[in-house]
Amino acid sequence: MSRAVRAKPKEHVDLLIVNADELVTLAGGGERPRTGKQMRELGIIRDGCLAIKEGRIVAVGKTVEITKAFKAENVISAKGRTVLPGFVDPHTHLVFAGSREDEFQMRVEGASYMEILASGNGILRTVRETRKARGEKLVDIGLETLNVMLEHGTTTAEAKSGYGLTTKDELKILEAAKRLNQLHCVDVVNTFLGAHAVPSEYKGNTDGYVSLVVEEMIPKVAEKNFADFCDAFCERGVFNLEQTRRVLVAGEKFGLKPKIHADEMSMLGGAELAADVGAVSAEHLLFSSAEGVKAMAEKGVIAVLLPAAAFSLMMGRYADARLMIDYDVPVALGTDFNPSCWVESQQLVIALACHFMKLTSAEAITAATINAAHAIGRAGEIGSLEVGKKADVVILDVPNHKFLGYRFGVNLVDRVIKNGRIVVDREKQDEPLLLGEAE
Ligand SMILES: [Zn+2]
Hints:
By secondary structure, this protein is an alpha/beta fold. It has 16 helices and 18 strands. Strand 17 and strand 18 form a beta hairpin.
């Protein structure tokens, strides 16, 4: 033993991740989502290290520094790898029964939306199947979906209702999502989307259905504390601006923060409405006007962009993310996981965002982590690797962050750490881990 300066005893932690080629921290964002050039600032530490204790991050820095102060029995070498905050998916329709692969074949062969609807497919088919399913069945299906999300690096997901469209069935869906949050290590954040479609029993009476949503569903959802957010599908032929406003204002009265499915298929003024009601986020935005985008920037409304939805619907058009970033609208990315856009991977969404919306890998990573966390009101806890935050971490088997978007169609995940626990370890096994089987 040398007689060098006697070091302070090292603090014992649960887990150390050392020697990351790139540790992408996204630190220093503060209270607000990132906009403009900030979206490219990832706060990368080379040869980075994370110390984790009791589910939280207790130190972030260079390996040589952190390992002087901390020790752990459990040490992961991230040499040759990139370490990021766990992905946050801020827009999913997590809970539903059935599937619509036949409809996809029809779309491939050129069928129109109306033909698909006439053949008994589309959203109302999923409503029929979801109404028939018992709550436990929906939970079982949801657990499998969350496993796949987790395996691809998503550690928190939003979940919208909207395939029930009766008070009882909407509550059943939200209750299933609550249960999923309890059972599965992925955190689930609920959004009430009773105004997702007009059910067949209200055909021709959209206002009557909106009254049901406003007068009966929203109060019940709030009373049971089943959701943080209230959303509505503002679209030609679905809910118009006035009906959407009615739903969101009613939701807000009951403490549900507004979100909007806006300007997905047509320019209806959804972006403007989002700004006007002070929505947390407006989502899709393929056809939004420049004025609408400007209004969103002024009010700080987050644009949740969903390129996988445009991709799967073969729309040949994507949201104008570059304009939004130029106007200082904070941009987030989500999967829009649902039966017509069956994708659980934020890695693929990042690739689509880079290819079709011309986001850089850095911007897309910001959009799928810290800005996504802001979009669901969780940025104080997740979305960046900073001392005090939850230890939700993904280790990718690539040497730097620019591989995200560049290398696509495969799962780049090496390990996922949720609340400080290693829950996916691809070195050990290829199978997804079910809850309870993790280390
Ligand atoms: Zn959606």
